[in-house]
Amino acid sequence: MSQATPQGVEASMPQQAEGCLGASDLPTLKATNGGKKKAEGSAKTKSPKVSTASAARLVIQRVETAILVIDAGPPEQQVSIGAGLVVYVCFLKEASVGTVAELVDLLFRADLLCLPNEDGSANRKVCLAQFPQDVDLLVVPQASLAGRLKANALQFHSLAPKPEAQELYRRFIEDLRAKAQAEAARVPGRKLRVEAGVYGNLQRLTFSSPGPFTTCIEI
Amino acid sequence: MSQATPQGVEASMPQQAEGCLGASDLPTLKATNGGKKKAEGSAKTKSPKVSTASAARLVIQRVETAILVIDAGPPEQQVSIGAGLVVYVCFLKEASVGTVAELVDLLFRADLLCLPNEDGSANRKVCLAQFPQDVDLLVVPQASLAGRLKANALQFHSLAPKPEAQELYRRFIEDLRAKAQAEAARVPGRKLRVEAGVYGNLQRLTFSSPGPFTTCIEI
């Protein structure tokens, strides 16, 4: 069964000067497991070595509008979207370029949106690639998603180191925009817009949701 | 390592007439595993039988303000909070009265809030029970959190049946309010307020967050 129990994290997150683990106040994690390195090959087992660690965590919310003000800066530092999805993303230690590709694919093929049926009786689920109307995405870097509760503290051992996570985030946005451009062209006149928060900056989020609808995806 | 992979769910959620799995458009799930009952005792194993299923899922977001309009109804159907936490909650099949007690305890003891240090250098994490200022909670029933992606569809096999989930939700709010009242009294003048959405109703959510800060907890 699916589990997201607070395992695999052993120490607290370093305290943050800029804002209590907000959108992107990402820590520079110290290497904490150097002394715990397993003696490889010292104990052979029958089962193959399979990593069960996760590579990324998403929380997705459907919204009608959302505004992200980065560093409470001037208007050009503000991004906003209309109807669509807010996608909070966090890269974990297992993340790679493949994770980015998987996330982009997932966001376009998963039935995360909905449309009323013609007879009004129900809604049908639709993926981003096949959604017939304009739809916007707002991506928010969200290190706090790596948090796992141990005793009373949220701990962040699974979080990818900042340089790697920052590069993966940059690539994620780039690939998401390329995919959106390609997919938008399949439905004449439809717009697929990708807006994004800035990795490592504090940002104020406001949104309005008709539902709300919140879902978590871990890969 | 912690995992929330889309396992353990085998069929799609029934389509919803009222709003695409919004805050509380909860399905009445059919019993789908009647034919798959394990032949108990037919194969003894050395390891004890331990359930690894989850009982509840929370997504928690720090907010400055949040407004929940239930069924787009009259003003008395609107609840709003100031600075505090929005807590989206979903009860799964393994949920019991004990789950409610565990969730209430967890929300008050986990270091989910933060305060600037006196020298302004950093923030320190604080739990609800020890937070020295007023703090509000807005609880939103959120069946969509049970969703696990299989192929392209979110599936909801782990969701608790509606009557049980509704009763657990009612109890959760009641116990949370009782705990808030008891805890508030420990700090003279401090207010701990619990507002809540209505289980099974569509509700429109608007919030503003300074961070944002989003975390997932599964028990």
From TrEMBL, chains A, B:
Subcellular location: Cytoplasm
Swiss-Prot/TrEMBL keywords: Cytoplasm, Hydrolase
Principal location class: cytoplasm
Single GO MF annotation: D-tyrosyl-tRNA(Tyr) deacylase activity
Residue segments, region Disordered: 1-48
Quaternary structure and partners: Homodimer.
PANTHER family documented for this protein: D-AMINOACYL-TRNA DEACYLASE 2 (PTHR10472:SF1), D-TYROSYL-TRNA TYR DEACYLASE (PTHR10472)
Protein name, per record: D-aminoacyl-tRNA deacylase
